[in-house]
Write a structure and sequence with these properties.
The protein contains 13 helices and 14 strands. With 388 residues, the chain is α+β, with helices and mostly antiparallel strands.
Length: 388
Amino acid sequence: MPRRRSSLSASEARRVALAAQGFDRSRPAAPTDVRHFRRALHAIGVLQLDFVNVLMPAHFLMLWSRLGGYDRKRFESFLYDSREFTEQWAHEASVVRTSDWPLLEYRRRAWQPWKRNPLKTLGDPDAYLRRILEQVEAGGAVTANDLPAAPSGKKLNPAEWHRPVQRWALEHHFGRGELGIRRRLTNFQRVYDLPERLIDDAYRLKPVDEADARRELLRQSARSLGVGTVHDLADYYRMTARDAAPGIAELVEDGALTPVDVEGWKDTAYLSDKARFPRAIPGASLLSPFDPVVWFRPRAERLFDFEYRIEIYVPEAKRKWGYYVLPFRLGDKIVARVDLKADRAAKTLLVRSLHHEQGADQKETESALQDELGALADWLGLETVSFY
C-alpha cells in the first residue's frame, strides 16, 4: 500500500497516473510474450477498440505504447484464445477481463438498441432474432455474412443505414449478452458465438448485485487510473458521477481509496490503495487517441495541461492540429502532438504535422520523437519516415 497521503503535487499525480497504466516500466528488451501482454492488459483494464486504420487500429497502438514492437498475430491469438479476455461494452466497445463478465451483467440487462435501428422494420423481429440464436447453437460461430436474409419489412433508405440488418441483429444479441465474440477476421469483422463456449462458467454464471458490481468496477477504475476525481473514476466504465458516488464513498470507508488534494485540481481526487509512486517515468511513447491516459479529455488537461480533441470528423479547413493526431509522451509529460499516416503503398510513415507543447525542450523532443517514429515505422513494415 502507498504511504498515506492527503495531497499530491502535479508531478506526483502525473507519475502515479502513468505508473498505474504501466509506464513506470521500460519497454521489454527481449521479444514480448504472453506475460507482457497479460501485464499490459491488466494495467489498462479496458482496451477500447477502434478500427480507424489510417495508421494502425488504436487498440494495437496502445500495446505498442507500452511494449514497443510485438508480434500482432501472437497478441490477437492470446486475446481471443486464452479465455482470459473478452469483448464487451465497457468504456465503449472494449476488451475486458473475462472476470469482468458478471460485473457488467447489469449493463447487459439495461442494454437498448438504437431506437431507429432497422430491426424495427421487420414484420416479426423476435422470430428472426430467435432463428439466429438457433443457427449459432446448432452450427457454431457466425459472421453477419453467414446469416439468412432478413424477412421483408418496411423498405429501408439505403443512405440511412450503414450496416445490414444481419449485423444489427448480431449486435443486438451481443449487447444483451446472448452472443459473444470468438475472434476478429483480418478485415476486423466480428465472429459471434454463444457465451458458454467463450466464458468459463465460474464467471458466466456468477451472480453479482448491481451495487456490488459498480463498486468493484470503480475499484478497478481507481487501480487503472492511480488517482482521479469522481468524474474520472465514473468515466472509465461509463457510469454517471451520481451512480458512482455511493460506491466511491464505500471504497473510501473500506480504505481502498483515499481522498487527496492534487495541486491545480479544483475537485477532490481519490488515490488508489494500489497506487505506485515512482521517482521518474522512463522513456517516451506515442499514445493512441483512445489510450486511458488521455481518453477523458478533462483529466488529460488537468494532468498534463494538454487540451486534446480528435479532428477526424472536423472538415480539413477547420482542423487545428490534423486528421489523426497522437500525443507524444516524454517522461511524465506530453511534449508534442503529431499527425501520422501509414502510406503502405509507398512503405512510408508520413508525419503530416508536428506541434510542440508550450515549455517543452524542442531539441530533446525531436530527438526522442525521431527514435520513436523510426521504431514505429519498422514495426509497421514501413521503410522510411517522411515529414511533409
